[in-house]
Structures are given as C-alpha cells and as structure tokens.
Design brief:
Length: 386
C-alpha cells in the first residue's frame, strides 16, 4: 500500500507541547520558548535546548495503516567521543507504544568540549516510515526526539488524518534542567516528565532546558503567559554546575521568578522541586567540568570544579539550595496556600544512587527516569491536587 498517497499539511493544531512553530527553509521547527523570549538570550546552550522538542508530539486521528513523516533532524556529535545514537521517534496508538524509528543523516552539530566550540554541518531530509498499523480509526501520537532538533517537512498516509483538538485533560507545565529535558533517557516517552504525565493523565508542556534552568526572567514570563492547571519548577542543579550566582542573589532571584509566575497564575497549584541527589555537588560547588582524562578515553564523566571551602564565599551547593528552597516555600505558603515544596531526593536519593548510580555523575539513566516519573506522579498528582 502506498503511504504517500495522501499529504496532510502540518499545522499548529496537530502539535502538542510546543509553544511556537518557526517556518524554516526546510519546514516547521517546533520551539519550546516563544520568539520574544529567545531574543532576550544569546546563549547557544539554551537556544539549542529549547529547539530540541522534548515533550512535543504530533497527535491525530486516522484509520491509516501506513504513515510517513519527513523530517530534517539536527543531531549532536562530540569530538573525540563515540557517535551518539540517533534521536528516537516514538509512535503510540491509543496511548500504547507501537513503533520506534530514528532518522539517519540530517544536520550535525559538532561540539568540541575541550575547546568550547561547535560547528553546524548541513544534511539532507529523512523519511520515517510506520507501516502495518492496526485497522480502524485510532488516535496516533508521534513523539519527537527529546534531544535532537527536528524540522517537520511532510506528513503522508494511506488514509485521511485529522487533528483531535483539545484533549480536555489538565495541563501540567514543568520547568527544569537537562534531567527534565530527558538527558540519558532512552526515548521521548521514557523521560521522567512524560512517565509522570502518563500516570497522572495530564497533558505535558515540558520546559526542561539542558543546562538552562537558571531563573531567567524571560522563562518566568513564558510560564506566566502559558495556560496551565498545575505548574512545577525543578530548580538547583544548573545554578550549581554553571556557578552562575552566589547565595545572596539566589533567594531574591527565586522570589522574583515566583512573583512573575503568580502574576499570570495567582492560584494555580505550584510545586517547587529541589535537586535530586548528585554526590559530586551535594557539598562541593560548581562549576561542573568534563573530566578530560575520561574524554581522552572516549567517556564523558563530570566532576566538581569548585571546592567545599568556597561555600564560605557564598558559592552554592545542592545542600544549600534545598535549604533555601524549603525556607522560601514555607514563607510564601503563609500567604499562598497553593505553593508546595518537594524534596528532589524523594525522586532519587541515596539508596537509589547505590543501586542506580548516575552514569556520568550528573544525569540519571533510563531506568531512573522511569522511577522518578512514577514517584513524581505519586507525590504531586494525588487525588484532589489538581
């Protein structure tokens, strides 16, 4: 059967989890930050992360048994390291994972961590094929890679495709670091926020940005202006591993971030989540640094670049940040009954680290992502919490 007989225009009503679509020379590029926010920061790390469509999915109804999605991916390649696996596209039918495909080729962002430089190499579009799907009308979701920018070019099928419209589920807006974006997860539906959203029956908008959960005011304004029924903020690890600010600045910055969100969501349930356990930064400040000896062996391991004595100078550690976040939420909760504190070690703590150590000393593995998602759903999305 020819899957290319019907071509469906990819319009915003097919996309869930993206805040904006940019038309490029190739097609449509989903963004997780709007244009105005992107113009307020030139950091290449943030701009790379927000264009990687973590939590973004095409959703539609169809009786098609064969579907093609033409894409132009941008994958990362680290100089001196083994090639990274290609990004994964998860296809779910009626909520169940049915197929996984990857796009070979595409553009390559070649990153030299030792030199701190990168170059973008051009590439060609690729076509993903999902065939032999079940007969009958069904809801299909194609989850885009959480760690690979994807320009959407064409959607083809052997039967008509129509958008489903709003699901009616509560919307959960989450902001966090690379762990929330899904670093080291196996596929886009395996990242911990998606696992949690699936268990809780909510629609996820994932503003997890690798290396970039840094209390940026434009992110707070984006959250303020985005409809949501519940909001969570997982804050801490990036403030330490970028060594961005000192203790004196952290408290007021956190309060300001929360104040901005409350301008648009005055009573929305708001969960402030502290960092999960990360032994290298529990009591030692950042910045986080790649272990160059490990890089030379073709392995990426992180280490703390600060020392414990620098805490006296106001440098931040995860232990300090947890104490500060708990205090901030306690103070604000006297006037705000809808703000709550979640200790990140309830998602991943010391006992978990003994069984499931962080593979690169910073990010959890695929099994840990699932564990964290299940625990978050149980802690936050309890009966009556939304």
């Amino acid at each position: 059967m020819n899957a290319t007989s019907i071509v469906t225009s990819i319009t915003p009503d097919f996309l869930f989890g993206a805040l904006e679509l940019e038309r490029t020379d190739a097609g449509l590029l989903p963004h997780r930050l709007p244009f105005r926010a992107r113009t307020q920061c030139d950091d290449p790390q943030l701009l790379m992360a927000e264009a990687q469509p973590s939590g973004v999915r095409l959703v539609f109804q169809t009786s098609a048994t064969a579907i093609e999605l033409e894409v132009l991916p941008t994958r990362r390649d680290y100089v001196g390291m083994p090639p990274r696996p290609a990004g994964v596209y998860d296809l779910r039918v009626n909520g169940r994972l049915e197929r996984q495909e990857s796009a070979s080729g595409g553009k390559v962002l070649r990153i030299d961590m030792a030199k701190g430089s990168s170059t973008l190499e051009p590439g060609q579009p690729q076509t993903l094929r999902f065939s032999d799907l079940s007969e009958g009308v069904k809801t299909v979701e194609i989850w885009l890679p959480h760690n690979e920018a994807t320009e959407l070019i064409a959607l083809r099928s052997d039967a008509p495709i129509v958008p489903i419209g709003a699901s009616g589920k509560p919307v959960w807006l989450h902001h966090g670091s690379s762990i929330s974006q899904g670093s080291n997860a196996a596929s886009p539906t395996g990242i911990w926020p998606v696992v949690a959203a699936d268990q809780a029956g909510v629609e996820l908008v994932n503003l997890g940005f690798g290396g970039s959960a840094l209390l940026d005011p434009f992110v707070a304004r984006t959250i303020r202006d985005t409809p949501a029924d519940v909001i969570s903020l997982k804050i801490g690890i990036n403030l330490v591993n970028t060594d961005l600010m000192r203790l004196r600045a952290f408290g007021p910055a956190m309060h300001g971030f929360l104040d901005t969100i409350r301008e648009g969501h005055p009573t929305t349930p708001l969960f402030v989540v502290s960092p999960i356990l990360c032994p290298i930064h529990e009591t030692v400040p950042g910045p986080s640094q790649a272990d160059l000896a490990s890089l030379r062996r073709g392995q990426l391991l992180f280490q703390a670049g600060g020392n414990a004595e620098e805490v006296r100078q106001g440098k931040l550690t995860l232990t300090l940040i947890r104490d500060q976040l708990r205090t901030i939420v306690e103070r604000r909760s006297k006037d705000d009954g809808n703000i709550h504190y979640v200790d990140g070690r309830e998602l991943y703590g010391e006992t978990d680290n003994e069984r499931l150590p962080l593979p690169d000393e910073l990010h959890p593995d695929a099994e840990t992502h699932r564990l964290m998602g299940e625990r978050f759903a149980g802690l936050v999305f309890k009966a009556g919490s939304i």
